[in-house]
Amino acid sequence: MGTYTHAISREAVELDSDCFVCDDPAIATYENGICTVSCANDHLLFRWQVPPTAAATATLPEIVDVAELLARQGMERTLNGYCPECYHAIESAVITESVETPVFRAQCETCGARLVCPAGYALLVDSRVVALYQRHGHDLHEYYLWDLPFIQEKERYRLVEERSACLEIDVSVASETLSVVLDETGHVVNYSLHEK
Ligand SMILES: [Zn+2]
Ligand SMILES: [Zn+2]
Q: What is the pTM of this model?
């Protein structure tokens, strides 16, 4: 059974999204339990594990939807201290040194699950960020998460050094900008709202 389900894969499909590095179309694939979105020039836009059971009867765009759901849930569980895979305690960190864009990283000592993504993923499950989009008539989860400016644009990341704070990320919708400050573990420690 395991062998059979692990063999599930899908023909690559172009999505209604462009690579934020080179503007080529974003292409989704699903292989060996991993959903990957990248472009023809191999710029990686998004990658998340999707269990074969969830992919068995799904189209590739549906698999991408599930992958994004699992990414959001994975972030929520990790930020609450639970490994998304085995539910043991997990610790997270924001890495700002020797990386081009700050990353959120967590590794489970119990099952080995590893989560590495742009630090902006920590804001996907933040109620004030969701509310900012809502206030302007947008549903945050309608967008492909790699398309969100606060995830892809490194100009929106600012390193800060105050007590435990290490990174500030600007989330802009219409005339409003919400600056969100994360601590070294990726938890939100401060907000400020500005009008343009
Ligand atoms: Zn590209
Ligand atoms: Zn685990």
A: 0.91
